[in-house]
Design goal:
alpha/beta, 2-enoyl-CoA Hydratase, Chain A, domain 1, 6-stranded mixed beta sheet, about 50% helix, binds coenzyme A
Length: about 260
């Protein structure tokens, strides 16, 4: 069904694996198109309630946009290229179901940008992160200057983007670029464990939390707080809210219905 990605559903989790290991899973047009289609599918299928995104092989998550496709860009097509990638990454960032990126090696350029569009990132010990675009005479175009700055702050973002240097997984953890670092052979298990924890909660609470946290990066504080109150109010109208609070008071485990 797909040429450049592998797709698997495991219980209520979908695992999307970018699969061009001979090119270190570089993002070409086909990968982006298939990635978008796979996420759209995950959005539509009721039984899928969370997504893990990873890369094939032991060397790379994604080593960037495919340089053989970008070297002919002009100012006009370059802008279209950046906007197209950004719109797909925005779709992932705004995805209503939780998305965990399991970074299994190099996450460079568009690979680091793709990881940053996911809701949570964990990394294997061999992972390396970088925005090496300046080495090619360009800057990040799939959201790197914006999301890296929001995630790790201006100083370290300036350092990484202006020098093009890579950082290792330990440093990424220190910077807050990833939430956990684990041995490579435990990476997918750990991602599943985290996602199973999240999917055991009320779906509406999770979706409204994702929307509210994303809003924090867009809105001034006063507007963000209003948005949070609106989302809190949505949760208060759900069956899951009644169930969660009743279960606590009755000293039992809640059984959420996603309603
Ligand atoms: N686009 C297209 N092809 C890429 C690629 C990319 N971003 N990154 C790696 N590849 C290809 C290489 O051309 C090579 O293909 P080949 O075997 O047909 O020659 C293959 O993947 C393996 O990469 P190679 O460079 O031989 O591996 P390495 O271990 O020596 O180096 C990297 C690994 C990640 C340091 C190096 O591949 C690299 O710097 N890649 C580009 C990173 C980058 O600039 N990304 C931002 C793009 S905007």
């Amino acid at each position: 069904m797909y040429e450049t990605i592998l797709f698997e559903q495991k219980g209520n989790i979908a695992i999307i694996t970018i699969n061009r290991p001979d090119k270190l899973n570089a993002l070409n047009k086909k990968v982006l198109e298939e990635l978008y289609n796979a996420f759209k599918h995950c959005g539509e299928v009721e039984t899928i309630w969370g997504v893990i995104l990873t890369g094939s092989g032991e060397k790379a998550f994604v080593a960037g946009a495919d340089i053989s496709e970008i070297n002919q860009l002009t100012p006009q097509t370059g802008k279209e290229f950046a906007l197209k990638g950004q719109s797909i990454f925005n779709y992932i960032e705004q995805f209503p179901k939780p998305v965990i990126c399991a970074v299994n090696g190099f996450a460079l350029g568009g690979g680091c940008e793709l990881a940053m569009a996911c809701h949570i990132r964990i990394a294997s010990e061999n992972a390396k992160f970088g925005q090496p675009e300046v080495n090619l005479g360009i800057i990040p175009g799939y959201g790197g200057t914006q999301r890296l700055t929001r995630l790790i702050g201006k100083g370290n973002s300036m350092y990484m983007i202006l020098t093009g240097e890579m950082i290792d997984a330990k440093t990424a953890l220190q910077y807050g670029l990833v939430s956990k670092v684990v041995p490579l052979n435990e990476l997918l298990n750990e991602a599943e464990k985290i996602l199973n924890t999240i999917t055991s909660k009320g779906r509406i609470a999770i979706t409204t939390a994702i929307r509210s946290i994303n809003a924090a990066c867009e809105l001034p504080l006063s507007e963000g707080l209003k948005f949070e109150a609106d989302m809190f109010s949505v949760c208060c109208g759900t069956v899951d809210f009644k169930e969660g609070t009743s279960a606590f008071l009755e000293k039992r485990k809640p059984e959420f219905k996603g309603k």
